[in-house]
């Protein structure tokens, strides 16, 4: 190869390298421009960075209102429960008072009473009296007049008084006779114990607002 030919070949290669370097430089510049543009245009704006308006305050107010309502509901429930307990307690007290007022038959009622032999009439075997006997209670109110109708409330309360005095339960008691004992508020009845066949004559008197009270029991021969 001649000298001129080698020179031309080297010159072409140098030009090619120069062109390549220029192209590489252009590419690098373009990359820098593009990267700079991306950084500039993608920079977050203040409005984008700012947090959205907080709804905490309204929510807190709403929650507070709900909390106040819940507290009120709890207080109301507590008050209702307290009232219900008071009503139950009152009902129990009423039941207890009613139970105390309404005397139940006591099998040993006559054993606790003062006993004497005989009585005013010859058919009396023993006579019983007691200062501990009390009125049996009543559901009646207002002025009272003895009623001897077997379906009346007064009759049922007279039965209860005779049962209480003798200790014989009403379902074991047969009424032979029940009527007036000399006054509008005094009654007398003759009964028989179904289980023993024993007969008793019971005198009772009315106590206003408290019911019939036993006065005397006679065991008949």
UniProtKB/TrEMBL annotation:
TM annotation in the entry: 20-41
Transport is among the record's keywords: no
Alphabetic keyword roster: Membrane, Transmembrane, Transmembrane helix
Highest taxon above the source species: Bacteria
Biased composition (Polar residues): 138-150
Domain DUF1510: 129-220
Biased composition regions of type Basic and acidic residues, renumbered to the chain: 63-129
Annotated spans, Disordered: 44-153
Protein name (Swiss-Prot/TrEMBL): DUF1510 domain-containing protein
């Amino acid at each position: 190869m001649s000298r001129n030919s080698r020179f031309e070949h080297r010159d072409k290669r140098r030009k090619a390298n120069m062109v390549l370097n220029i192209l590489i430089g252009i590419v690098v510049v373009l990359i820098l421009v593009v990267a700079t543009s991306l950084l500039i245009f993608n920079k977050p704006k203040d409005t984008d960075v700012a947090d959205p308006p907080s709804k905490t305050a309204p929510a807190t107010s709403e929650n507070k209102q709900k909390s106040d309502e819940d507290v009120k509901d709890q207080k109301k429930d507590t008050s209702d429960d307290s009232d219900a307990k008071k009503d139950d307690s009152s009902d129990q007290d009423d039941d207890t008072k009613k139970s105390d007022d309404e005397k139940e038959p006591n099998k040993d009622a006559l054993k606790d009473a003062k006993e004497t032999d005989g009585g005013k009439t010859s058919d009396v075997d023993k006579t019983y009296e007691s200062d501990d006997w009390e009125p049996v209670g009543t559901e009646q109110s207002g002025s009272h007049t003895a009623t001897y109708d077997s379906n009346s409330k007064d009759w049922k309360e007279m039965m209860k008084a005779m049962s209480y005095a003798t200790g014989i339960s009403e379902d074991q008691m047969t009424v032979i006779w029940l009527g007036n004992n000399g006054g509008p508020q005094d009654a007398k009845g003759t009964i028989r114990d179904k289980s023993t066949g024993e007969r008793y004559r019971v005198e009772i008197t009315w106590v206003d607002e408290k019911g019939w009270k036993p006065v005397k029991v006679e065991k008949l021969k």
